[in-house]
Write a structure and sequence with these properties.
carbohydrate metabolism, globular, 2 domains, NAD(P)-bd_dom_sf, ten-stranded mixed β-sheet, 12 helices, Dihydrodipicolinate Reductase, domain 2, Rossmann fold, G6P_DH_NAD-bd, binds NADPH dihydro-nicotinamide-adenine-dinucleotide phosphate, 444 residues, Glucose-6-phosphate 1-dehydrogenase, six-stranded parallel β-sheet, alpha/beta, oxidoreductase
């Protein structure tokens, strides 16, 4: 029997939750249908009184058409639900009893419950080889992330701890690596000699979508910038890794993030926080928390390659236009020959994260008067990746490959970077602005 044929068990703690239904189970279904996953026994756990049929229906709905594929259908036939309070060692013991093959435990739980479940697992003891899969937010500060890391490493070695950042499972985000390190043409230009500035933007038209319970405690800075957008920044700024070995690759990510600081060191000048009009009155929102639905910070990557280039990271909800892209703006040419006339648009490389597209903007003396410059754009658009992001995440888990998971020290670095901003916001040093729903955000 090959490793690929050996049955594995995926235990989902938080079976009735939103993440499980919307992202995790559909990702599992797609992975199983793609045919390169091992046979998977799926165990759902939660506090609800569900019978086996109710859980099976939930899984079948989430699998959709994928449920007809052989391996997915087998998982559906075998899946079981266990009623359990996952903070109780006895319940966890029951849950893990009789698991087939290698076990992966996915904590699809509120963060505070995840910590309690990990503490309870210390009492239970885990079978050799068990993997732990954790969701963001990973801690709420560098010190809480560090203490969670200490707890986790008492349960499993670092290479078996998968901290999910599903952006790393997005094909375009990963394409940054291919674009930079599998070509000669872009990489020599990426640095302070040629780059003026970099924007990494994730603006959404969507508002809360019923997720106030989670979002109001997180806000845009922690929900998007501290996690996903800093990972993109790291991919854009890291040095070429020698290989995609998880240790080597994640050393490169960590090294890039260690150089990141707040631009100018002053949160008042380098951060914006705002919320859309009406947010404070929405169900589940506590106005006293002053949660932002839009955050923007400017960062410096303080190393030889990037010193002096501002990186603007921004994410907001309920905006007029969804804009999800990294834009590298190049410096002006040192001199344009006298005699050229025209639009003189800046050279830009735009990497869009949905729809997935690469675009390079520059000037050329195109048709018509040869001395009048015309703007042109070279574009490449690709379809979505073979698997949805959670399918990629689970593939890494089943294959014991933590390449796409956030290493413990990296998670701590990400908090270290945003902490001065969080402290200034908590102290009221940066005003909470308001913007109309459907607008482009707060106006200066
Ligand atoms: P939900 O509140 O929808 O689900 C949480 C689940 O945890 C519920 O099924 C709940 O079951 C269960 N649970 C809570 N306490 C216990 C307990 N003591 N024992 C057993 N089960 C328990 O949260 P989400 O699914 O939205 O989020 C889960 C995690 O994923 C969070 O860390 C979140 O930050 C993260 N995440 C979520 C995303 C999303 O889109 N939803 C996106 C990215 C990350 P019950 O109600 O029966 O108690």
């Amino acid at each position: 029997m090959t490793k690929q044929d050996a049955t594995q068990t995926l235990v989902i703690l938080g079976a009735s939750g939103d993440l499980t239904a919307r992202l995790l189970l559909p990702g599992l279904g797609a992975l199983l249908a793609a045919g390169d996953a091992p046979p998977v026994t799926l165990v759902g756990a939660g506090t609800d009184e569900w019978d086996a049929e109710r859980w099976r229906e939930r899984v079948a709905t989430a699998f959709g058409e994928h449920g007809k594929a052989k391996r997915a259908a087998e998982t559906l036939d075998r899946t079981r639900y266990v009623r359990a309070d996952v903070t109780q060692p006895d319940d966890l013991r029951r849950l893990l009893d009789g698991a087939d093959g290698a076990i992966s435990i996915f904590f699809a739980l509120p963060p505070a419950v995840t910590v309690k479940a990990c503490e309870a697992l210390l009492d239970v003891g885990l079978p050799e080889g068990t993997r732990l899969v954790l969701e963001k937010p990973f801690g709420t500060s560098a010190s809480s992330a560090a203490s969670l890391n200490r707890l986790l490493t008492r349960l499993a070695p670092e290479e078996r701890i998968h901290r999910v950042d599903h952006f790393l499972g997005k094909s375009t985000v990963l394409n940054i690596l291919g674009l930079r390190f599998a070509n000669r043409i872009f990489e020599p230009l990426l640095g302070s000699e040629h780059v003026e500035s970099v924007d990494i933007v994730f603006d959404e038209e969507l508002a809360l979508e019923g997720r106030a319970g989670y979002y109001d405690k997180a806000g845009a800075l922690a929900d998007m910038i501290q996690s996903h957008l800093l990972q993109i920044l790291a991919l854009l700024t890291m040095e070429a890794p020698l290989s995609l070995d998880p240790q080597v690759f994640r050393d490169g990510i960590a090294e890039a993030l260690r150089a990141v600081r707040l631009w100018g060191g002053d949160p008042k000048a380098s951060s914006v926080r705002a919320r859309y009009a009406g947010y404070a009155g929405e169900a589940g929102v506590d106005p006293a928390r002053q949660t932002e639905t839009l955050a923007e910070i400017v960062l410096a990557v303080d190393n030889w390659r990037w010193a002096g280039v501002p990186f603007r990271l921004r994410s907001g909800k309920a905006l007029g236009t969804g804009r999800k892209e990294a834009v590298i703006l190049f410096k002006e040419p040192p001199r344009i020959p006298d005699g050229f006339r025209g639009p003189d648009q800046p050279d830009r490389l735009r990497i869009s994260f949905g729809p997935d597209r690469l675009a390079l903007d520059f000037d050329i003396n195109g048709p018509g008067d040869p001395f009048v410059l015309d703007p042109v754009t070279l574009e490449a658009e690709f379809g979505p990746g073979e698997l949805p992001p959670y399918g990629e995440v689970l593939r890494g888990v089943f294959e014991d490959d933590p390449l796409l998971s956030v290493r413990g020290d990296v998670a701590e670095q990400c908090w270290r970077i945003v902490e001065p901003v969080q402290a200034a916001w908590r102290a009221g040093e940066v005003p909470l602005l308001e913007y109309p729903v459907g607008s482009s955000g707060p106006q200066d």
